[in-house]
Amino acid sequence: MGARSLASVSVGDVLGPVTVPVGRDTLVAYANASGDQNPIHQDEEFARSVGLPDVIAHGMWTMGAAGTVVAEWAGDAGRVIEYGTRFTKPVVVPVGGARIDVTGTVTSVDAESGRVGVDLTVTSEGQKVLGRCVAVVRLD
Amino acid sequence: MAVNPDYVGRTYPPSGPYPVDAALIAAFAAAVGSSDPVHTDPEAARAAGYADVVAPPTMAVRFAQASDRAYVADPEAGIDYSRVVHGEQRFVHHRPITAGDEVLGTLTVDQIRQAGGHSMITTRTELATASGEALATCTSTIVVRAGED
């Protein structure tokens, strides 16, 4: 493994689609690793008590899982130098689990700096869950 | 309770240091589904040019959110955390966070806006090592939803 070469990348290249499963166990693992122990991500009863349909994934889990798709495409997670998104809709995670679908498109390639821009589309149950999800990777 | 607009421009003293170790990086990578060996194999990480195993790009949020607490939990700031949802998040990495780093986070309240009874708070956390090496700039917007009453 190793980083993808800059010369092999062109505007319009497509990443994915990649489907990522998410279960309640994923959210417990994410809560422990991230330090975000908000019960809306683990406790169904609590989530319903604050008006949510069910447990929802951490927005940052969704962003992180989509980031993994970019990092694996780049071939080296340390190459992701910028990454931002809006959280537009929660990913509802029923007891049987859910999934997100991630696709990306290369929107810019700067041969001088090696900066490659990637726009990501992330959906769950056909609905966009992240908005303006954009990453920049640096390739040689 | 209303979000206190007087906090705009305020910078907090650095919080931390937050130690980064291989186990934490491996746990975070597993949670976001990353099997890239640079997270778990020090040899692979060194071969890729890093000092040690590398944190996934969004792991910086752990230290940014830890640094946010001094502000968010300040009763004078007027933030009802039970009404908070995450609106936006952005990272600019200056170099990857690696095992062995001791991370300090310096929080600045950049902007507080009101819209339709909701408050949008944008904070910026500069992550750096204890020796002052810049790691990441983490910008977060949280939305404090309007109350029913």
Automatic annotation (TrEMBL), chain A:
Q: Which residues form the MaoC-like domain?
A: 18-109
InterPro entries of this UniProt entry? Answer: Fatty_acid_synthase (IPR003965), HotDog_dom_sf (IPR029069), MaoC-like_dom (IPR002539)
Name a Pfam family for this protein: MaoC_dehydratas
What domain of life? Bacteria
The family line of this record is: Belongs to the enoyl-CoA hydratase/isomerase family.
What is the official name of this protein in its record? MaoC family dehydratase
UniProtKB/TrEMBL annotation, chain B:
Domain named FAS1-like dehydratase is located at 8-137
User: Could you tell me the superkingdom of the organism this chain comes from?
Assistant: Bacteria
What SUPFAM superfamilies has UniProt attached to this entry? Answer: Thioesterase/thiol ester dehydrase-isomerase
Signal peptide, first to last residue: none
Q: Which InterPro entries match?
A: FAS1-like_DH_region (IPR039569), HadA-like (IPR016709), HotDog_dom_sf (IPR029069)
Pfam families named among the record's database cross-references: FAS1_DH_region
Q: Which HAMAP family match?
A: UPF0336
Family designation: Belongs to the UPF0336 family.
Instruction: Name it.
Output: UPF0336 protein JQN70_07150
